[in-house]
Specification:
Layout (H helix, E strand, L loop, with lengths): L4 E5 L3 H13 L3 E5 L2 H10 L3 E7 L8 H11 L4 E6 L14 E4 L4 H15 L2
Parallel strand pairs: 1-2, 1-3, 3-4, 4-5
């Protein structure tokens, strides 16, 4: 069990539920949002989020990459994991300290990235 909380942002309900289950099974406390606006509302009210796990492609004024950039500026301590099935990111496009994975991603790859981020947040 870890003390780190993960915020999962995914607009596809089935993918979001699957991601929440995967991360909770690893012992993390999970919050979820279906878009960037809801994610920011959660971040405004919680100071225990240590990892943002977000899809890029979402409806609304802000996509997941914009969300990740905003989080990096406002909450620099939060680790960032970005995924997408439609967009490829160059390393330079990923916010500093963040990581990017293409969908479909391997469960083991995401879990490794979560545990690495968790280890960094404990520093």
């Amino acid at each position: 069990m870890t003390d780190t909380c993960v915020l999962i942002v995914e607009d596809e309900p089935l993918i979001r539920v699957d991601a929440v289950d995967m991360v909770e099974d690893e012992g993390f406390t999970v919050f979820s949002a279906s878009n960037a606006a809801r994610a920011l509302a959660i971040l405004e009210t919680r100071d225990d989020i240590g990892i943002l796990f977000t899809d890029i492609d979402m409806p609304g004024e802000m996509d997941g990459l914009d969300l990740a950039r905003t989080v990096r500026k406002r909450w620099p301590h939060i680790a960032i994991i970005i995924v997408s099935g439609h967009t490829q990111l160059a390393d330079a496009e990923v916010p500093n300290g963040g990581v990017f994975f293409s969908k479909p991603y391997l469960r083991a790859t995401i879990l490794k990235a979560l545990h690495q981020a968790d280890a960094r947040t404990g520093d």
